[in-house]
């Protein structure tokens, strides 16, 4: 996805994506946010996720590392751990050029549900979305694709075990 | 004879406390059950058990200001040890005292359910998982919840705690869960205990300050929790051995 360069409005490292997604909705952001995992233990940390918004409603998702789009890209982005978030504004005309890319489209509530685990925010987003944007429900597809990715899950589990072992000595647990 | 379970999720909002109380009530039909709110930073059991107004809680016990017996309440056929919600109570609490609390209660019960914090961010948050014999994983069928639940499981098994099973909670799409649950099972130890649908009844029970099984015993969600309880094969250990194990759990002297 070739996103025009936007105007950087905010950047921060977060562990919970609820706030940036909620802010994008409430501020009716037209533009995109760039999400870059900070957890280098996970191999998928290479590359960044890009999520476009049209008046606060999530439209397209793309991952620069895996070249995946849509719900597949959501699964690439949805990892536990800190994430650098950069929020960019764009003119609607600039965004319109890339909006008609169905293979990158996501259900408006999916980012809140799958990236932040916030069902209430997902419901609010869906309620605010234009009617046709809620016609599909790709959440199930995203979860299913995530569970099919055995390599990725092995990485998550390996990283958790390594973290648990490393912290055991810090915390004085005898393992 | 006693077995201690940590009810954990890794991520908040999965319905962990609802699950703890529901499993507790279902198991109490057969066993002597003790529920301990081990989430000392974000206590919730008191709101689910109609104990919001009590004076003495686990915070006081962990601060050395009260005995365990003073923080124990008989509710809904269970022994309930609620935790307080004040920040000062949280600050004064010494988490390592939890092992003594569990050791004391282990002598007089069959099953201990530790409602555990929804984070792995600190030693005190992980402590209930370390102390428990086995883990009950509460998970929503979303990617963050599944990946966090896997993390909790790996922490537990790394620290020598077994996994009793996985409970899918707050499920909104019955058809989808039939596809997702078998795929998820491959990554979790233990069995799938039950699938509990999202329902307004659960929220109403919480607002009423009653466990679901007391508020709506005939609801589909209550039945699903009973199924989960029936699927748990309790592996009772000798109470004295369990108490000794908790007391000797290796915890650093300094926070």
Gist of the model:
The complex is a heterodimer of chains A (175) and B (255). Chain A is of the alpha+beta class and 175 residues long.
How would you sum up this structure, described in words?
The complex is a heterodimer of chains A (175) and B (255). Chain A is an alpha+beta fold. Chain A is built from 7 helices and 5 strands, in the order E-H-E-E-E-H-E-H-H-H-H-H. Chain A is globular and about 60 Å long. The model of chain A is unreliable at 132-138 (pLDDT under 50). Chain B has 255 residues and is α/β, with parallel strands linked by helices. Chain B has one domain: 3-Layer(aba) Sandwich (Rossmann fold), CATH 3.40.50. In chain B, strand 3 and strand 4 (78-81) form a beta hairpin. The longest helix of chain B is centred in the middle third of the chain and has 16 residues, at 143-158. In chain B, strands 3-4-2-5-1-6-7-8 form an 8-stranded mixed sheet, sandwiched between helices. Chain B is built from 12 helices and 8 strands. At the A-B interface, helix 4, helix 6 and helix 7 of A face helix 6, helix 7 and helix 8 of B.
Could you outline the blueprint of secondary structure elements for this entry?
The complex is a heterodimer of chains A (175) and B (255).
Chain A: E1 7-14, H1 18-26, E2 31-37, E3 49-54, E4 57-63, H2 70-77, E5 83-89, H3 92-99, H4 110-115, H5 119-128, H6 139-148, H7 150-171
Antiparallel strand pairs in A: 1-5, 2-3, 2-5, 3-4
Chain B: E1 3-8, H1 16-27, E2 33-37, H2 45-48, H3 58-62, E3 73-75, E4 78-81, H4 87-92, H5 98-106, E5 111-115, H6 123-131, E6 134-139, H7 143-158, E7 162-171, H8 174-185, E8 191-197, H9 200-208, H10 212-215, H11 220-231, H12 239-247
Parallel strand pairs in B: 1-5, 1-6, 2-4, 2-5, 6-7, 7-8
Antiparallel strand pairs in B: 3-4
Helix pairs in contact in B: 1-11, 5-12
């Amino acid at each position: 996805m070739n996103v025009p360069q936007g105007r950087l409005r905010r950047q921060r490292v977060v562990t919970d994506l609820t706030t940036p997604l909620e802010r994008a909705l409430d501020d009716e952001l037209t533009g995109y946010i760039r999400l870059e995992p900070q957890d280098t233990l996970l191999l998928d940390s290479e590359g960044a996720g890009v999520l476009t918004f049209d008046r606060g409603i999530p439209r397209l998702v793309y991952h620069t590392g895996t070249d995946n789009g849509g719900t597949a890209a959501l699964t690439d982005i949805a990892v536990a751990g800190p994430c650098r978030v950069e929020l960019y504004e764009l003119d609607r005309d600039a965004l319109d050029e890339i909006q008609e890319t169905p293979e990158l489209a996501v259900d408006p509530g999916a980012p809140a549900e799958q990236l932040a685990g916030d069902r209430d925010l997902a419901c609010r987003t869906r309620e605010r979305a234009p009617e046709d944007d809620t016609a599909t429900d790709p959440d199930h597809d995203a979860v299913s694709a995530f569970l099919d990715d055995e390599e990725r899950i092995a990485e998550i589990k390996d990283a958790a075990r390594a973290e648990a072992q490393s912290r055991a000595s810090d915390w004085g647990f005898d393992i | 004879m006693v077995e201690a379970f940590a009810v954990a999720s890794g991520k908040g909002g999965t319905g962990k406390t609802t699950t703890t109380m529901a499993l507790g009530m279902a198991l109490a039909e057969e066993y002597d059950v003790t529920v301990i709110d081990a989430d000392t930073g974000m206590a919730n059991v008191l709101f689910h058990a109609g104990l919001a107004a009590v004076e003495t809680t686990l915070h006081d016990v962990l601060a050395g200001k009260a005995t365990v017996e003073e923080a124990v309440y008989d509710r809904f056929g269970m022994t309930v040890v609620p935790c307080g919600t004040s920040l000062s109570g949280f600050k004064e609490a010494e988490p390592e005292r939890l092992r003594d609390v569990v050791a004391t209660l282990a002598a007089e019960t069959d099953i201990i359910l530790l409602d555990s914090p929804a984070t792995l961010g600190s030693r005190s948050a992980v402590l209930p998982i370390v102390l428990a014999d086995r883990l009950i994983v509460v998970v929503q069928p979303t990617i963050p919840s599944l990946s966090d639940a896997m993390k909790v499981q790996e922490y537990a098994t790394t620290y020598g705690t077994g996994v009793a099973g996985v409970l899918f909670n707050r499920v909104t799409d019955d058809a989808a869960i039939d596809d997702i649950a078998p795929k998820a099972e491959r990554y979790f130890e233990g069995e799938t205990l039950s699938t509990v649908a999202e329902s307004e009844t659960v929220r109403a029970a919480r607002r009423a300050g009653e466990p679901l099984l007391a508020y709506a015993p005939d609801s589909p969600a209550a039945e699903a929790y009973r199924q989960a309880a029936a699927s748990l094969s309790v592996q009772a250990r000798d109470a004295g051995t369990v108490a000794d194990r908790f007391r000797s759990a290796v915890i650093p002297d300094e926070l």
